[in-house]
Amino acid sequence: MLSRCPSWPNEYADRYRKEGCWQGETFGDMLRTRASKHGDRIAITSGESCWSYGELDTKADRLAAGLSKLGIKPMDRVIVQLPNISEFFEVCFALFRLGALPVFALPLHRSSEITYFSEFTEAVAYIIPDTYSGFDYRELARQAQNKVPTLRNVIVVGDPQEFTALGDLHTEPTILPEVNASDVAFLQLSGGSTGLPKLIPRTHDDYIYSLRVSADICKLDESSVYLAVLPVAHNYPLSSPGVLGTLYAGGRVVLAPRSSPDDAFPLIARERVTITGLVPPLALIWLEAASSRHYDLSSLQVLQVGGAKFSEEVARRVRSTLGCTLQQVFGMAEGLVNYTRLDDPEETLVNTQGRPMSPYDEIRVVDEDDQEVEQGQTGHLLTRGPYTIRGYYKAEEHNAKAFTLDGFYRTGDLVRLTASGYLVVEGRAKDQINRGGDKVAAEEIENHLLAHPAVHDVAVVSMPDEFLGERTCAFVILHERPATAGELKAFLRERGLAAYKIPDRVEFIDSFPQTGVGKVSKKALRESIAQKLSSVANAGF
Ligand code: AMP
Ligand code: DBH
């Protein structure tokens, strides 16, 4: 068992087992069963390479043995930062079989995030590509190893330089300790609403349940072909139903190296892709590109859009432009996922963010005092269920705020329930900027900016953006010493912050607007920047 991981109380765990949600299956079992059932079928296509279920199964066994030989033990944390390449799967399933826990970093994370994850989880290993998208991850590994003494092993897909090559670790499979399905399988990252991202412990039992239900709702079977466009380490393309849901259903995963229409459309045509998942800004780009590109996209049955609110206007264009069904997906790495169903009326598809995937998901929409609002009114979404965590890893103080006493997760989302039980996302109460699906925690950026000697105080808020939905604006109060926006942004880059977290705009002001009790009114700041932007836009006409 991993310590400091809140779990479900026994009465709930018993119920979820009795009702058949949790079936005692581990990820190791899942792959073994698929490999014995259809070992020769292709599981993963990436560029010119194809791996069958049988091959993936063997690779996972051989790598698990190699990792074990290297000294990696059950429950050890391993930072996995891999892009959409086949090795991602080999690494995950090897760690799952070993009972070691992947911590899923995103390819865009840089030294600030990687050092934090490594330190916080006391990770023993870090698995990276050599280079990807023009960035050398070995340099990042050197920085992390310098700061975090527990990080003994760096394992590289490709040219390892002074580190260990993943390919050299393969060895004869050995008998490994039994893995328990009720144990934590990996740590997923939250988008973060306070400070740095929180770590989300997901068990084999709860996650595989979410894959089974997702695959069922998305009608996946052995003939399904899922194109992974978003970075697969993210919960949405990983599990809703994503790459793991596709493998659960015995289908085929195609990995897209990049997300642009010019990369993805030829892949859809060549591989006869049936389903893919996008965030709203990307869906918009695809819709705009579709009319001027002449690839055969007729195999595509379902286009999922989620991660941030998809506007109704654009949503309406999906069927007419791409000829496929839109599925809205409103989910979170903490658990709860809502889907519109494939046979829902068009109005439900374009106007709602779906309904909970499981009959055991419990939903409450409440006011500031945790009292249920009337049906149809907007309130805070709380949820509890068989695949929603009961607490973050090593975060007792935060958990006391983020969960109710009876175990409901406070999602931080403002929603309204329709008469037919569908959710419409109306906004967000938590302090987070949703940059087209990339979540930026205001406090994390504020803390970095506060470290700059010229900065007296700072408040980071969202500003409306036609393309991404929201972008970040940092309101900064300076000390006597002057500083420019460019200087502050360069400072953040030097601190190793992921590029999407660098504020899009910096506004210098003398004092912050305040709320009734004297807190900084982020609401007023959001309004002021939105107003400024709209008057600039209007001035253009
Ligand atoms: P994360 O913390 O990265 O797991 O992000 C989860 C959050 O993304 C949710 O709590 C919502 O705020 C937002 N989100 C995800 N999907 C949607 C959607 N379809 N519409 C609106 N917001 C969404
Ligand atoms: O944004 C998310 O985190 C998200 C969106 C859709 C998610 O985690 C999911 C589906 O599973």
UniProtKB/TrEMBL annotation:
Keyword terms: Ligase, Nucleotidyltransferase, Transferase
This enzyme's EC code(s): 2.7.7.58
Pfam families: AMP-binding, AMP-binding_C
GO MF, one example: 2,3-dihydroxybenzoate--[aryl-carrier protein] ligase
GO biological process: siderophore biosynthetic process
Residue stretches making up the AMP-binding enzyme C-terminal domain: 444-519
Gene3D superfamilies reported for this sequence: 3.30.300.30, 3.40.50.980, Luciferase, Domain 3
InterPro entries reported for this sequence: AMP-bd_C, AMP-bd_C_sf, AMP-binding_CS, AMP-dep_synth/lig_dom, ATP-dep_AMP-bd_enzyme, DHB_AMP_lig
Family according to the record: Belongs to the ATP-dependent AMP-binding enzyme family.
NCBIfam families, A to Z: DHB_AMP_lig
Name under which the protein is recorded: (2,3-dihydroxybenzoyl)adenylate synthase
Source organism (scientific name): Paenibacillus sp. SYP-B3998
